[in-house]
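User: Please fill in residues for this 681-position structure.
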C-alpha cells in the first residue's frame, strides 16, 4: 500500500515534450508481523522513474527496490504506447523479475507474499483507471490534447495548462503496481482532430467499419482480432481471410487466440487441399441431388439472416447415399455452406448491419426409422464433423419443426457431435407447436412462411421422395467415385519424420527453366532444401502413410538421396536451407542454371543448423516413425515452366490457384523472381 513519496530527480525538456521524474516511494507491505519484526522494518522503499515522451506518445515506468536490495532484487518495467493500427488505442506491455538471494530463511514466504501482492495489484488496475478518469471529469478535463511543438511565444494560459496536466499525469500513480491509472489520457486522442471516417473494409479498425461489418466488439475482442490477423499476415501472406471469417473462429473459441489460430490454420489448409473456394464455380451437383435433395434457400428471417429450408422428413437419405456416396453428399453440403457465406455478405450490404450467420428451418414430418439407417447416420455425423470444424458460428438459429416420436433417437445419436454453443441455438417444436406463441412467427415474417407449413409463400424447395433403385450404385463404384471427388486437387500431401525427409525429383532438360513451388506447413517445423545432381537417384523408397480423406488428409514419405551419396561429390545444394514454421505458407521459384535432376526436400527441423551431409534414411529410424512428436506434415504443389513463360510470381500462374478467393478480399503477389529463388511467406 502506497504511503508517501519524495521527488529525487526531475527533468523537463525545453519544448515540454519529455518529462522524467524519479521518486523514492514509501510502501506498507501486507506481511506477517513476525516477518516484519525479524526484518527490522515497518516500511519498504522503492525507486520509481517515470519517463513521459509526448512527442512519441510513450510512457515508460521503471521501478526497483531500495530496501533489502542486497538480499532481494525486484525490477519492473511498464510501457504504454499507441497501437500501430489505431491511434485511439493504448498498448500496454509489462515485464517484472524477482530474485531472492537470501532472506533470513524466509525465502519461500517472501516469494509467496510478492506473488500475492503482484496479482492483487494487477486486479486493481481497472478500478484505479476509472477513479482517475472520474477525478479528471470532476475537474472539467474530458480530454488531454495531443502534444504539439510550442509556438515562438506561447501564451501563458497554454503553458500553464500543459504543465498542470503533465504534472498531474506524472503524479497520478506513484506505485508501478498502480500503473493502470495512466493507461489512456497521455496516449489516446479522444478530443483531438477527428480521424477521417472511411467506413470501408480497407480501414480495418475504423469504428464505422466495425459497427457496419463486424458488430459490437469489446476492446479485448478487437485486440484479439487484430493480433490473429497480424499473425495470419506474417504466415499466410496474400491469403488472409476477411475479418468476418476470422471473427467466426475467435467467437467459436471464446476469443482464445491460440485455439482459434490452431483451428483456423487447419481449416485454411483443408480449404486449399480440396479447393473448396472454387466449389461454387467448378462443381455442378449431380441431377439426383437436384431432384431428390429436399433443401434450398428461401428468403430471410426477421433478423435479416438468409433462411435455408430442409425437409429432412421427406428426403430419402438411404437412397441418396446408395446412389451418390458419402463424399458427393458432403460436397453438396459444403456448396450450401459456401453459398450461405455469400448470402451473408449480400444481406450485410442490403440491411446495412453485420450478418454473419444464417437460419436453418428443418421440417421433420415424415421422419421414420428408415432415416436411422446406419450408413446414412454415419454420413450425417461426418457432415456435422466437417461443418463444425470449418464453418464455426455460421448457424444463427436452427428451427426444428414437427418432430416425431422417433426424433429423440436421432437426437441422441447426433447431439454429442454438435458443439455446445451451436446446440444452444436449437429450437425444437413437436406437432403443431410451431404455430403457437413463441413459434415460427417470432422468427419469420408471416408472408414468407412456406406453403407446406400452412403459410402463404410458395417454396421452391424440391419435395424429395424415394430415389429409384435403378440409380443405386455398387460399393466399388461409390468407392472409386469418392476417391475421384477428393483427389481432384493440384496439391499433394506428405509426411516428414525425424530422420526421414520427403523428397521429390524434377528432371530439367533445358537450362534456365523455372521450378516453382507453393507449400503449407500443416504440422511441425521443417527445413526446405533444393539439391542438384547430374545423375538420377535410384527408384524411390515409398512408405504410404495414409489415404486421401477430407477430414484428415494423409500423405506419403519418399526418400531419393542414397545413403552412399556425398554432398559436393554426388549432388550439390543450389539454395540456402529455409526453416519454415508450423502454419506458414511458402511460395517461391528457382531459375535453374544446369540441366539434370533437381531434388526438392522437406526435412524435419528440431535442432538449429543440421549438417547438410547428414541424411539418415528410413532404415535407421524405423522406431521413430511411430513417434507423433517427430512427425511433420506438408501440403505442396510444384511446377516447371520455361523462363520465357514465367511472369514473375506464383499468383500469375493460371494453374496455381493457391489463394482463398472466397474468404479473402484481395490476394497479393509473392516476391518477384530473380536469378535465384525468392521465398515469399
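Assistant: Residues filled in for all 681 positions:
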Amino acid at each position: 500500500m502506497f504511503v508517501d513519496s519524495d521527488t529525487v530527480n526531475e527533468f523537463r525538456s525545453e519544448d515540454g515534450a519529455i518529462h522524467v521524474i524519479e521518486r523514492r516511494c514509501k510502501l506498507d507491505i501486507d506481511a506477517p508481523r513476525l516477518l516484519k519484526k525479524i526484518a527490522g522494518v515497518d516500511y519498504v522503499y522503492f525507486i520509481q522513474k517515470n519517463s513521459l515522451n509526448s512527442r512519441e506518445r510513450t510512457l515508460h515506468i521503471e521501478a526497483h527496490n531500495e530496501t533489502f536490495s542486497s538480499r532481494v532484487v525486484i525490477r519492473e518495467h511498464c510501457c504504454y504506447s499507441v497501437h500501430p493500427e489505431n491511434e485511439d488505442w493504448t498498448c500496454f506491455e509489462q515485464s517484472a523479475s524477482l530474485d531472492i538471494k537470501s532472506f533470513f530463511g524466509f525465502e519461500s514466504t517472501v516469494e509467496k507474499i510478492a506473488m500475492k501482492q503482484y496479482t492483487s495489484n494487477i486486479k486493481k488496475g481497472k478500478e484505479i483507471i476509472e477513479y482517475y478518469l472520474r477525478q479528471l471529469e470532476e475537474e472539467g478535463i474530458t480530454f488531454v490534447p495531443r502534444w504539439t511543438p510550442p509556438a515562438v511565444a506561447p501564451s501563458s494560459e497554454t503553458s500553464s495548462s500543459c504543465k498542470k496536466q503533465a504534472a498531474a499525469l506524472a503524479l497520478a500513480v506513484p506505485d508501478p503496481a498502480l500503473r493502470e491509472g495512466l493507461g489512456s489520457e497521455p496516449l489516446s486522442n479522444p478530443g483531438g482532430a477527428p480521424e477521417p471516417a472511411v467506413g470501408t473494409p480497407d480501414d480495418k479498425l475504423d469504428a464505422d467499419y466495425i459497427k457496419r461489418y463486424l458488430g459490437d466488439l469489446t476492446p479485448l475482442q478487437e485486440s484479439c482480432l487484430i493480433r490473429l490477423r497480424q499473425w495470419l499476415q506474417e504466415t499466410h501472406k496474400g491469403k488472409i481471410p476477411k475479418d468476418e471469417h476470422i471473427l467466426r473462429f475467435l467467437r467459436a473459441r471464446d476469443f482464445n487466440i491460440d485455439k482459434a489460430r490452431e483451428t483456423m490454420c487447419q481449416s485454411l489448409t483443408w480449404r486449399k487441399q480440396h479447393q473448396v473456394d472454387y466449389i461454387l464455380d467448378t462443381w455442378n451437383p449431380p441431377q439426383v441431388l437436384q431432384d431428390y435433395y429436399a433443401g434450398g434457400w428461401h428468403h430471410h428471417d426477421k433478423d435479416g439472416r438468409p433462411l435455408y429450408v430442409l425437409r429432412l422428413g421427406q428426403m430419402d437419405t438411404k437412397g441418396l447415399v446408395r446412389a451418390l456416396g458419402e463424399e458427393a453428399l458432403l460436397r453438396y453440403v459444403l456448396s450450401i455452406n459456401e453459398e450461405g457465406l455469400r448470402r451473408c455478405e449480400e444481406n450485410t450490404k442490403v440491411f446495412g448491419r453485420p450478418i454473419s450467420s444464417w437460419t436453418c428451418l428443418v421440417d421433420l414430418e415424415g421422419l421414420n426409422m428408415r432415416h436411422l439407417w446406419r450408413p446414412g447416420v454415419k454420413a450425417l455425423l461426418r457432415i456435422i464433423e466437417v461443418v463444425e470444424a470449418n464453418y464455426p458460428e455460421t448457424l444463427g438459429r436452427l428451427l426444428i419443426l414437427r418432430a416425431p416420436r422417433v426424433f429423440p433417437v436421432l437426437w441422441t445419436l447426433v447431439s454429442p457431435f454438435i458443439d455446445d454453443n451451436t446446440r444452444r441455438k436449437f429450437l425444437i417444436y413437436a406437432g403443431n407447436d410451431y404455430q403457437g406463441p413463441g413459434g415460427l412467427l417470432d422468427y419469420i415474417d408471416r408472408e414468407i412462411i412456406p406453403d407446406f407449413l400452412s403459410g402463404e409463400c410458395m417454396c421452391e424447395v424440391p419435395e424429395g421422395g424415394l430415389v429409384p433403385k435403378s440409380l443405386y450404385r455398387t460399393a466399388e463404384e461409390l468407392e472409386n467415385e469418392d476417391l475421384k471427388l477428393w483427389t481432384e486437387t493440384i496439391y499433394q500431401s506428405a509426411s516428414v519424420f525425424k530422420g526421414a525427409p520427403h523428397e521429390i525429383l524434377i528432371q530439367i532438360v533445358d537450362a534456365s527453366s523455372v521450378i516453382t513451388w507453393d507449400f503449407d506447413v500443416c504440422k511441425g517445423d521443417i527445413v526446405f532444401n533444393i539439391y542438384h545432381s547430374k545423375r538420377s537417384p535410384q527408384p524411390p523408397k515409398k512408405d504410404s502413410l495414409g489415404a486421401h480423406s477430407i477430414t484428415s488428409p494423409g500423405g506419403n514419405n519418399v526418400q531419393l538421396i542414397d545413403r552412399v551419396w556425398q554432398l559436393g561429390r554426388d549432388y550439390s545444394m543450389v539454395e540456402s536451407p529455409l526453416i519454415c514454421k508450423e502454419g506458414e505458407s511458402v511460395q517461391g521459384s528457382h531459375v535453374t542454371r544446369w540441366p539434370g535432376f533437381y531434388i526438392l526436400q522437406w526435412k524435419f527441423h528440431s535442432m538449429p543448423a543440421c549438417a547438410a551431409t547428414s541424411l539418415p534414411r528410413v532404415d535407421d529410424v524405423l522406431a521413430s516413425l511411430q513417434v507423433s512428436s517427430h512427425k511433420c506434415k506438408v501440403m505442396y504443389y510444384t511446377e516447371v515452366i520455361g523462363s520465357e513463360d514465367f511472369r514473375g510470381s506464383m499468383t500469375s500462374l493460371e494453374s496455381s490457384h493457391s489463394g482463398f478467393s472466397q474468404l479473402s478480399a484481395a490476394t497479393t503477389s509473392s516476391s518477384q523472381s530473380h536469378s535465384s529463388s525468392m521465398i515469399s511467406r
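For context: The CA atoms of residues 327 and 482 lie 5 Å apart.
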